[in-house]
């Protein structure tokens, strides 16, 4: 059995605009009972909000269909028995951490400082608060909900959380625990959720975070020419297994290359 991992932003939609043919493509996989997950570094919305967003685009999904950095971070915190967390996240994402003790950023009893993409909410004041929290809690773990460099919305390219994390690593001389793409552990968590399905394929627009990272995890990767994709990406020493114009072409490719292989 084969399975598919869908990136969201840049593959199924750009900002609040669906990509042509995305709904039909995803629903084709559902209709054909092909295992799938939505694998995203999005931290601006909870999984429940992502279900609602996809539904508005005509895409069926349930909360259990999503693997997000907050979910992976919660698993990591539990396995490492850390409870006191300082959160620098959009308000709607904080609900994913409701089982932990959310501490004040000025506290000196912080086990982990968790950082997601605050988008336009980032300011020098907030960045300095993160810095001070880490300095005041030298044993606290810096947890990055992804290390994406940038993404694209309808107005153009936008900085993501990765550059912010690099600044905090440099300033505090520490290394972040990354619970989203491109970390190997994130893809391994996806593999585990799919019960180690023998042939898992990632489809994404990010040549590093989706394509290279999934290949490092032993998966095959499909690059789409939507979202943040640039022709210059193909000049890098990273080779997608397949390149498609968009996700709308995925069902036909899958039927010809994956389903036919199983039948034969």
The radius of gyration over CA amounts to 19 Å
Q: What would you say the CATH architecture of the largest domain is?
A: 3-Layer(aba) Sandwich
Number of DSSP helical runs: 8
* Helix proportion: 25-40%
Structural class: alpha/beta
Task: Enumerate the strands of the largest sheet in spatial order, edge to edge or round the barrel.
Answer: 5-4-1-13-14-15
Which oligomerization state do the chains in this entry correspond to?
single chain
Element pattern in H and E: EEEHEHEHEEEHEEEHEHEHEEH
Tell me how many strands there are.
Answer: 15
Indicate how many domains the architecture comprises. Answer: 2
Strand coverage percent: 15-25%
CATH top level label of the largest domain? Alpha Beta
| CATH structural fold name of the largest domain | Rossmann fold
Terminal Cα span: 13 Å
Shape: globular
Describe the largest sheet: 6 strands, parallel
Write the layout of secondary structure elements.
Layout: E1 2-6, E2 13-14, E3 17-18, H1 22-31, E4 36-39, H2 47-56, E5 66-67, H3 69-79, E6 84-88, E7 101-102, E8 112-115, H4 124-136, E9 141-144, E10 150-153, E11 156-159, H5 161-172, E12 177-178, H6 184-193, E13 199-204, H7 207-216, E14 220-224, E15 242-244, H8 250-263
Parallel strand pairs: 1-4, 1-13, 4-5, 6-7, 6-8, 8-9, 9-12, 13-14, 14-15
Antiparallel strand pairs: 2-3, 10-11
């Amino acid at each position: 059995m084969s399975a598919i991992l869908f990136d969201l932003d840049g593959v199924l939609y750009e900002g609040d605009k669906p990509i042509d043919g995305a709904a039909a493509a995803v629903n084709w996989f559902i209709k054909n009972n092909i295992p799938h997950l939505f694998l995203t570094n999005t931290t601006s919305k909870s999984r429940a909000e992502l279900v609602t967003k996809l539904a508005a685009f005509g895409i069926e999904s349930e909360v259990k269909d999503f693997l997000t950095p907050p979910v992976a971070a919660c698993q990591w915190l539990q396995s490492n028995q850390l409870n006191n967390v300082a959160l620098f996240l959009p308000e709607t994402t904080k609900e994913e951490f409701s089982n932990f003790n959310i501490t004040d950023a000025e506290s000196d009893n912080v086990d982990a400082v968790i950082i997601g993409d605050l988008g336009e909410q980032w300011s020098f004041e907030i960045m300095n608060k993160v810095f001070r929290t880490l300095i005041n809690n030298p044993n606290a773990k810096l947890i990055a909900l992804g290390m994406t460099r940038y993404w694209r919305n309808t107005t153009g390219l936008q900085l993501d959380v990765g550059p912010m994390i690099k600044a905090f690593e440099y300033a505090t001389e520490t290394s972040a625990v990354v619970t989203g793409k491109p970390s190997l552990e994130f893809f391994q968590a996806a593999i585990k959720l799919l019960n180690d399905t023998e042939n898992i394929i990632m489809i994404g627009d990010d040549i590093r975070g989706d394509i290279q990272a999934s290949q490092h995890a032993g998966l095959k990767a499909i690059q789409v020419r939507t979202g943040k994709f640039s022709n210059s990406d193909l000049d890098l020493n990273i080779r997608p297994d397949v390149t498609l114009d968009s996700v709308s072409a995925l069902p036909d490719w899958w039927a010809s290359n994956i389903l036919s292989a199983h039948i034969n």
